[in-house]
Specification:
Order of helices and strands: HEHEHH
Strand content: 5-15%
Structural class: mainly alpha
Largest sheet: 2 strands, antiparallel
Distance between the termini: 18 Å
Shape: elongated
Radius of gyration: 15 Å
Helix content: 40-55%
Length: about 80
């Protein structure tokens, strides 16, 4: 899900790509840290927090781009 993948999906050179949702991963990590600090249990599936990721297609790239970290990088570089 990097900026290159965003660009080629947007331009129609690629039909589909897998994306790890880094924003979701940060939320998982911060939630786990908050629970640990509060002495609450953290549900770990087995010993890790899982990001299921998602599929980005040429058809969904505009509606889902804000979940793609590569779009944030692309947007910063390209305005």
């Amino acid at each position: 899900g990097d900026e290159g993948q965003y660009q080629v999906l947007k331009d129609g050179y690629m039909d589909v790509g897998g994306v790890q949702n880094v924003f979701y991963e940060v939320d998982l990590a911060l939630d786990a840290i908050s629970k640990l600090k509060a002495g609450q249990p953290v549900p770990l599936m087995p010993k890790m927090l899982l990001d299921p990721g998602f599929v980005m297609t040429h058809e969904t790239v505009e509606q889902d781009r804000d979940k793609m970290w590569g779009y944030a990088v692309w947007k910063k570089k390209n305005g």
